Amino acid sequence: MPSGILYYAAPTPNGHKVSVFLEELKAAYGLEYDIVRIDITKGTQKEPWFIKLNPNGRIPVIIDHNRNDFTVFESAAILLYLQQHYDKENKFAFDKDADADNWSEMLQWIFFAHGGVGPMQGQANFFYNYATEDIPYAKKRYHEETKRLYGVLEIRLKDRDYLAGPGRGVYSLADINVIPWIRFYKKAGIESLDEWPHLKAWVDRSFARAGFQAGIDVLGKPL
Q: How far apart are CA 162 and CA 68, in angstroms?
């Protein structure tokens, strides 16, 4: 039986979330994984073999050969699964029993991004770049909502380095889960991050990590 993690991915924000964490785990613990690149422009993720892995027909998906080929889909769920099983020293999260408040704080920001930043910025991206007709109302709505959500993050980061954790915060899944979206800000019609200086510094700070940059680079040119 093969070992390691098999990762089905494409160079999108949701794909980068998981590749960043896999690279961080590789650097911290030596975790082995392989990538199967999915061409979402050709609809490969809608083919029957892929639907068996994820009935929703979306990347990313992992198959964990170390744990009886257990399959996980949805990017935030994959992050939490990998942390549970492969981050034994809680280098990227918090002990949910001994440090329950910080664990909850991390989850709150993960869910904020998963239910807010991703969907809203994703819609802005679609209407700015891929819609077959120009719909100004839709572009304005999702553009403005993306900016509002960036403002929420700016408030949180005003006196912090990272979203969750004690003091000025600790680099964790909360950050990994959302920064890959923010790096695509121009696709949402946002020219610059200068309006949110603390958010911009946080993005730059995270990108300075070798593991983070490796996780972006490993999937190749963004779609």
A: 35
